[in-house]
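Narrative summary of target 7.
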Amino acid sequence: MYNDAYRALTRHFYSGLFRATHNAEVSETTVVRSLAAVAAPVLLAAFWIVLLAPHGRVKHLTPWAAAGIHYIFVAYAFSAMGCITTLQWERLFPSRADFLILLPLPIRARDLFAAKLSANAIYLFLFLVASSIFALLLLPTLAYEHYVRAMFAPAIAVVTAALVSPLLVITLEGIVIVLTPQRFYRSVTPVIQTLLITVFLTAFLRLFPVVEHLPMLLNGQNPSAAWIVPLWFEALYETLLGGIPPTAFTTQLAHCALWSVPALLAAVAVTYPAAWYRRHRMALEGERSAQLHDARIWPFLLEPLLLRSTDQRAVFHFIRKTLGRLDRYHTLLALYAGVGLSLSMAQVFSIHSNSGGHLYLSVWKPGAQAALPILLFWTVAGLRVCFLLPEELAARWIFRVAPLNTTRAVTTTKRFVFMLCGFVIVFGITALALCGWSSYDLLFQTLFAGMFAMLLIDLFFFFESSIPFTRPPLPDSTSLPLTLAVFIFGIPASIILMLTVERGVGHSLLRMGEFVAGASIVHLTMHRLRRLPSHPVSDDAFLGETQEEFQTLGLSV
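Modeled conformation, tokenized:
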């Protein structure tokens, strides 16, 4: 099995898991950065725990406080590995091009299968080590007794938690591939990815409420706590360590954690080969996606009002078809949508305990007011990032030979984003209506959300000067500190500003009119600034390219 073809295939599949685009180069720096991004939160948590713990030892903490520290590392390993595996949903199997190109070659099918399994195993093992290494190094050193238990308890509990979530994702993907009709697969997959990322991130974002109520959850006062999967591995951790008094409920959760790994391994052993066979057939037969028969809808809905010129219609439908056709854009949008949904749910729902010690969820109205701005921010940011990722640059010659106006193309892009934000607003308003909000509050929330989306789009696309998916990636065109600053400070600042204005307006129609007028003035001012000669927007979206570049399409090279 370990022949040259097998090793070459393993390298090919392994590099593909780290590749951002199909033609991007993968270097050791890319791998190290990816692993460091996963390990950094655990390192920071370990640093602050050592810094804040008296004399660097847990012996000065209560057993339940120590259990809360243990749960932080368990929950992070579970959530991080789940998100990482979900983001590689399509790459856990060979692509259609891999099947069509590699299988006709003199390569044994079992070598292809084994190489892909090996690449997936190496990839997941690296991230498993990155997500749990600092927990395995820190937690035993903080113990003051039972050193043998302190070494084996995190090694078993944290690693088991980091194994279960990817096995769960792979099993679910196999079931989806086998059971979903081929023409609906592209529509179902992004929804499942979004839900999985939402679940994994919510399990981590609701970390501190779980830690706060950990005694109630592990003592069996709330049987519904059995649905909190990271709690299984925390129960396993404490059972192995002997840090807290064991209960029947804790023992039951620990057994669930122990049996989950062999059960999921058996499930993967059944579903993965079946899904492989199905993907192979889909590659040979050709992918058929569900077609939306909307060719007659757009001329009546949008084109007479918003898409009057031919170049506007071309750009709009090019964006719509590209986003609906390519899997990597689906994955990226699922990531941003999952982050937005998890952050929104963390704001909306709060956990409380009653006099009987039972926990319940309640809706926090200020958090519900922040939910829509959070969703809109991540929607606009996700679309902006997708538009910057090129795909098949040789095919953009069609926009060069067509009479294209760059300003109208950018305006069309902004209208497309605003249309999707409209769907998000409808989704959010419907959820708030189900929570019992009055029609008056819903009307005001809709107006605020619409103005907020309009201003966000103006900010994100203020310097845009190209058609989406057609700009080549420029070296050193992005700054990591600036990007982190936008997400770390931009999201809270914009949401706090939105909530402050909303509370200042209250239910006054006069103040609402003033707010709408002010937002419209800002929008028109930014629109005017884009038309100034000093603004870096060129009338030629493909400035710097020679005439021969799109005439030859690279075929003469």
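The radius of gyration is 26 Å.
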